[in-house]
Amino acid sequence: MINSGIYNYIDVLDKGADACWTRNEVISNNIANVDTPNYKRKDVAFNAYLEEAMVGSGNLDGKISRINTRLEEINCSVYTDNVNLSYRIDGNNVDISAENAYLAENQIRYNALIDSMNQEFTRIRTAIGSR
Q: DSSP character for 115?
C-alpha cells in the first residue's frame, strides 16, 4: 500500500479545503474591517494555481497523481483586491453584502470538499473490507 497512490484524491481535496479555510479567515477579516478607514479587501488565490497544475494530457487519475508529486508547491496566496478602488469616501473598499455572499459560497465549497474526502475514505474502507 505504500506509494500506491490510494490517497492521491484525498491529498488534493485536503489542499483545497486548506485553501477554503484560509479564504474563510480572510473574508472574516474583511467583514471585521468593514468600517476601518483605508482598509482594502483581501482575497485568496488558489483555484487558478490548481487549474494550472491540471493542464496537460492524460486522464484525471494521471493528472491527480502528477499533482501529488509536487503538491507542496501548490499553495494559496492572499492578495489585496482592487487596491485603487474605494466604495466610500474613507477609502475602504469592502462591500459587506458581497463579503457575506463570498463567505456563504466559500462555506458551501468547503463542505463539498469535506464530503468528497469522506466519500473517498468510505470507498477505501469498502475496498479493504472494513465496516
A: H
Task: Give the predicted TM-score (pTM) of the model.
Answer: 0.81
| Cα-based torsion angle of the residue sequence 55, 48, 24, 61 in order, rounded to the nearest 10 degrees | 0
User: 63: Cβ–Cβ under 8 A, 6 or more apart, which residues?
Assistant: 54, 56
User: Cell 463570498 sits at which residue?
Assistant: 102
- Cα–Cα distance for residue pair 113/121, rounded to 1 Å: 12
For residue range 103-124, list pLDDT tens digits in order.
999 999 999 999 999 998 898 8
Question: Which 8-state DSSP code applies to residue 99?
Answer: H
Other beta carbons within 10 angstroms of residue 45's beta carbon come to 14
Q: What is the DSSP string of 9-73?
A: HHHHHHHHHHHHHHHHHHHHHHHHTTTSTT---EEEE-HHHHHHHH-SSS-HHHHHHHHHTTGGG
CA–CA dist 103, 86 (Å, integer)? 21
